[in-house]
Amino acid sequence: SHDPLLLRDRVQTDEHLSELRKRKKKSLHALYSRQNQQIDDLLKHIDDHVREAEEEEDNNRLAIKIAIYGSLAANCVLAILQLYAAISSLSLSIFGTAIDSVFDPAANLILWWCHKKAQRVDYKQYPGGGSKFESIGDIVYSGIMGAVSLILVAFSIQDLARGESDKELHIPALVVVCIAFLTKFVLFAYCFSIRGKNSQVRVLWEDHRNDLFINGFGAFTSAAGAKIAWFIDPLGALVISFVLIFTWGHTCVGHFKHLAGQAAPREFQNLVTYKAMTFADQITAIDSCVAYHNGPNYTVEVDLVMDGETPLRVAHDVSQALQDKLEELPQVDRAFVHVDHETSHKPEHRK
């Protein structure tokens, strides 16, 4: 394969990696393993990147649908069951699990609608593509869950201020919460295996992960509040609320960064730079190459350098071909390629 920088000479052999593992040099082993993977990605033809991504999407399409629709169906059933458990037990900890569960189906539908909108976007109305809709959906989802948690905080503080109260252990309610816990564990394990394949599935995985804690901790504090000390129940609900606010707040901040145009990972920027640099013989240098988020996907800007005597037709055709190739990559929404004949000027698009 084309390897003008002799990167393949830097690849560490399996024997060397095995020796490092035997000598328990884990950090070096991890470093060289990542280096080998990055070199392999850089030397792989861009068409192979596109083909592998398409094959992976085809292979995971059914699994992603199962995760999305399975989560929606389970959340609808659990919302009814846990609402019954909360009303019958009058436990704030159980109310914490129920409130989260009741809002899950609505949040799922918002997430699903935004995902479909991103896939079927009208490019006349949204020329930049629709991937930002996915980030907006994730932020709305996170915001709903955080707002619900604030309501529970108010009820918990009110219950603690009111003082001691007698609450009996309600077995049917605890059974419902345990059923929810087991269901969420199955969904969590399933979504965990494909969380990197789809942004919608990743948010669902985070939701199931949070629900595992909520249902497990809620069942414990509800039972402890009835059998050990009354204040454990509202205190448990308060803890659940703050955990939800923190986890969904963290998720929300991450998606805000994507909407704000956070830089793509260094590995991806290196890949784009190398592919641009080695794309055609007419390209003598790369003046600049940046990739940044446009929602979950990336926008790429590349400034090429060609000889000043290069015919306009050749310069255009090479840059257009590179732009088309970059936009074939599954992570790239838009690519912009600019051609210059020197590198001594100020960077473009800098205020």
UniProtKB/TrEMBL annotation:
Cation efflux protein transmembrane domain ranges (all copies): 71-254
Signal peptide residues on this chain, from the entry's feature table: none
Keywords attached to this entry: Membrane, Transmembrane, Transmembrane helix, Transport
Gene Ontology biological-process entries: inorganic ion homeostasis; intracellular monoatomic cation homeostasis
Compartments where found: Membrane
Gene3D superfamilies linked: Cation efflux protein transmembrane domain, Cation efflux protein, cytoplasmic domain
Domain Cation efflux protein cytoplasmic, first and last residues per copy: 281-341
TM helices/strands, residue ranges: 66-87, 93-114, 135-157, 169-192, 238-256
Membrane topology note: Multi-pass membrane protein
One Pfam family from the record: Cation_efflux
InterPro entries: Cation_efflux, Cation_efflux_CTD, Cation_efflux_CTD_sf, Cation_efflux_TM, Cation_efflux_TMD_sf, CDF_Transporter
One Gene Ontology MF term: monoatomic cation transmembrane transporter activity
PANTHER family: CATION DIFFUSION FACILITATOR 1 (AFU_ORTHOLOGUE AFUA_1G14440), MITOCHONDRIAL METAL TRANSPORTER 1-RELATED
Protein known as: Uncharacterized protein
Protein species of origin: Rhodotorula diobovata
